[in-house]
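Q: How would the structure tokens look for this protein?
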Amino acid sequence: MNAPLPLVSESLVVPQPYLLFLGDTTEASFAKTAFGLAHWAPDQCVGEMALPGATVTTGLARITPAQARDAGAQSLVIGVANQGGVLGAGWIEALVDAMDAGLHIVSGLHVRLSSVPALKEAATRNDRRLIDIRTPPADLPVGTGRKRSGKRLLTVGTDCALGKKYTALALYHAFTGRGLYADFRATGQTGIMIAGGGIPMDAVVSDFEAGAAEVLSPDAPAQHWDLIEGQGSIFNPSYAAVSLGLLHGSQPDVFVVCHDPTRKTILGLEGFDLPTIEEVIEMTIRLGSRTNPAIRCGGVSLNTSSLSDGDAEKLLADESARLGMPVADPVRGGPAFEALVDACLA
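A: Here is the predicted structure in token form.
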């Protein structure tokens, strides 16, 4: 899915298939790693595991680590991407049990698994690996702003965890399905697990954020497209730095705005209202034109997962008419999504 990248000496090898670990999560948005893997790599997921109190499920069979190992699983993936990327204290015993059952542990959290003594000891005792996905390549350069060859599309958002990865992956499959030369460029832990490579942008030192984005999407043939997974939002008080560095370094020719129409405030920051789609379009063009004056909005991706088919179809049509551009839900697909693909390629 991903062409080789400069400065990344070798792809991170993650033993598959996976058992998805949901911890004690009650907020579906924080389980986006598990949901992303279950949706985009279902053949590599044998089931899910959760602790008492968890109210989130991917819909996969709920099994124990021993049952997962018997079913062929090689690794337990921590399927939670919570605020701050922290490891829940109540998870450790379950993770040790998983290693005792013969599974490696894979994490996209900020905390290093080997920094937890109980996990390190269990890994040594069982000859299992502790695999941290959020480890950027060494020697990343500072961004240069140099215009690169090839074409680029970046997904941006009104907030975190509302469909930027899903949209980029859906567009990648649509582009390649039309016979175009394209790569999906992963920038977050789930995308990296799906694609088999990428750069975890939120683990990069700020001074090298734009440079990392340039490395992620290098010079390419004129007709080649990189579909770049966005991160955060330039309106998010917590994560805007990552979003802006990715925007400047990606130099997108086209961007797609991702939005959850049912969300009113920034996730985890209830005092901050979500920006409007129009505000995101205007600000993305204003800031993105610094490194690509030709930047344009290809359309809007709405996460309508909580709506009925009829309500979703009406909302997509109404928003398209209001904004004067294609509006689609890439998971639902259909003519609206095909119109979005057409607009991105126009």
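Confidence is low (pLDDT under 50) at residues 6-11.

The chain has two domains: 18-132, 151-345.

Upvote if useful.
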